[in-house]
Design brief:
By secondary structure, the protein is mostly helical. The chain has four helices and two strands, in the order ααααββ. A hairpin with a 5-residue loop joins strand 1 and strand 2. The longest helix has 46 residues. This is Flagellar biosynthetic protein FlgN.
């Protein structure tokens, strides 16, 4: 098999893996919105596996003896450009999901603080980071 065909196969595999990653990120977004923790764990494993295979495929292309053809051959260069576009979409989706995760974490933290306040308002204090904390031993170590 010649270098162009081998690189074509590697590029096709790379595009397929990126499309799988995009689909996983869409599923991740839906699971984040639905707050489905078990689904998120399964998606995280799938994403991790896809990222590992992407890295392996990328390493194979970088080590390929015909690597320079990726920029000099017009057909291969067009595939590389398409892959870069799909990769940019993956990065955008990943950033959007990261923002959704940060928003969810902030909401959970606010809820936890509200629950802490309502549970035991009489012994409420704050940590050095400004978060609420209850001290159940407040005043128990005072000796007379």
């Amino acid at each position: 098999m010649d270098h162009v065909n081998e690189l074509n196969q590697l590029l096709d595999a790379q595009q397929s893996l990126l499309e799988q990653l995009l689909a996983a990120m869409a599923a991740e977004r839906a699971a984040l919105i639905a707050q489905n923790a078990s689904e998120l764990m399964a998606i995280a494993e799938h994403k991790s596996s896809a990222l590992l295979r992407l890295k392996q495929n990328d390493d194979a292309m970088a080590a390929h003896p015909g690597h320079s053809l990726l920029t000099s051959d017009n057909a291969l260069a067009a595939k590389v450009e398409s892959i870069q576009h799909t990769l940019a979409r993956c990065k955008h989706e990943n950033e959007a999901n990261a923002q959704l995760i940060e928003h969810s974490q902030a909401s959970v933290n606010r809820l936890a603080q509200a629950l802490q306040v309502s549970r035991n308002a009489s012994s409420l204090t704050y940590t050095d980071k400004g978060k609420t904390s209850t001290i159940s031993t407040l005043g128990s170590s005072i000796e007379v």
